[in-house]
Please model this.
Amino acid sequence: MSDKTEVNLTGVQQSKGVWLVKVPKYLSQQWDKATEKGEVGKISIGKRQGKTEVRFSLNEELTALGAVGEKDASLQVPRDHPFTMHTVGGQTMAVFSQSDTDEISLEGMVVHRAECRPVVDDSYMKLKKLQIKESTKSPRLSQQLERAITTVFKPVANHDFNVVYDKKKKSEGKMVRAERQVVLDMLFSAFEKHQYYNIKDLVDITKQPVTYLKEIMKEIGTYNNKGAHKSTWELKPEYRHYQCAEEEEEMQIA
Model:
């Protein structure tokens, strides 16, 4: 629907009454096959035992499930469709239409409701079997390739970043956080042997998760971003139990 608020009310002014009829999906699909000015069928209204009887008969040319003109008798839709009539039930319903120019018109008010149902015959039963068969078909199809496709990305069992992540997760998953003082003792003991360590070596020594280890090292150590010992950790001066090479040299000179 467009944003226009103006509605052509000619249908109301002419007191035009319309029927609201529910039809099977296959019937509307057959109607779409008709030519622009073609006839889709006929409606007959009569009396039977004092009751109004309404029936719709589909044009014979539109009974084939395939293209118009096919004569395969095994693929025919039912032609005869009696109406089941219903009351409007005190409801106020209307039918609107929209033109190619987006003009909205009120075609009329609903005066009758009905359901268009097929006669259960051989044609209908064949149609239902076909519909059930189609509904059970898998929407996914597999196709064997004769040669490798090189115009698109090749499928891989697992991407590199997933492999790295899984390896890291598996490695850290086996590590259980030890008591803080226990980890500190291991770190101080390691730094008594060497002044510089990268984080990987510290993980191997302490068997602690990287994130936990970095938290502790940020408190007791300094990370070298440049210089000869780039990307390594060393203890802060107040935690060192060794003398650096420059200090030792100064003491010897003195």
